[in-house]
Amino acid sequence: MFTPDELAVLQPPTLILWGRSERLLPSASLEFFRRAVPAHVRIEEPDEFGHCPYLDRPRAVADRIAAFVDELR
Questions:
Q1: At residue 4, does pLDDT exceed 90?
Q2: Distances in Å between the alpha carbon of 6 and those of 1, 10, 22?
Q3: Looking at residue 36, what is its pLDDT?
Q4: How far apart are CA 35 and CA 17, in angstroms?
Q5: How far is CA 12 from CA 8, 19, 59, 69, in A?
Q6: Nearest-CA neighbor of 32 among 53, 46, 50, 18?
Q7: What is the pLDDT of residues 17-66, one digit of tens each?
Q8: pLDDT of amino acid 51
Q9: Which of 30, 34, 49, 55 is the most exposed place for a label (fewest CB within 10 A)?
Q10: CA-CA distance, 23 to 25, in Å (whole number)?
């Protein structure tokens, strides 16, 4: 098992998609992530995404994930 210190040095590419149409979670949650996440984490706020874009717009989410992976190559 990894120790907390060993895990802390990992910097996996991470993309947070926080939809601008979010209506369930408070905006303070997004502000928390902006302050708390490490520099290697990217936060994007697509206009057309709400709370469950993987249900409402699965193709758009899949396309964004695929593009993110391509950007890492």
A1: no
A2: 10, 7, 34
A3: 87
A4: 16
A5: 11, 22, 24, 12
A6: 18
A7: 999 999 999 999 999 989 988 888 999 999 999 999 999 999 999 999 99
A8: 96
A9: 55
A10: 6
In the block, residue with structure tokens 């369930």: 24
Please give the sequence-ordered ranges of beta strands (E in DSSP) within 1-73, or none if there are none: 14-17, 41-44
Tokens of 31: 């502000």
Q: Which of 53, 32, 49, 33 is nearest to 41 (CA)?
A: 33
Name the token pair of 53. 């874009």
Report field, pTM of the whole predicted structure over 0.85: no
What number of other Cβ atoms are within 10 A of residue 59's Cβ? 7
Torsion, CA 64, CA 68, CA 70, CA 73, rounded to 10:
180
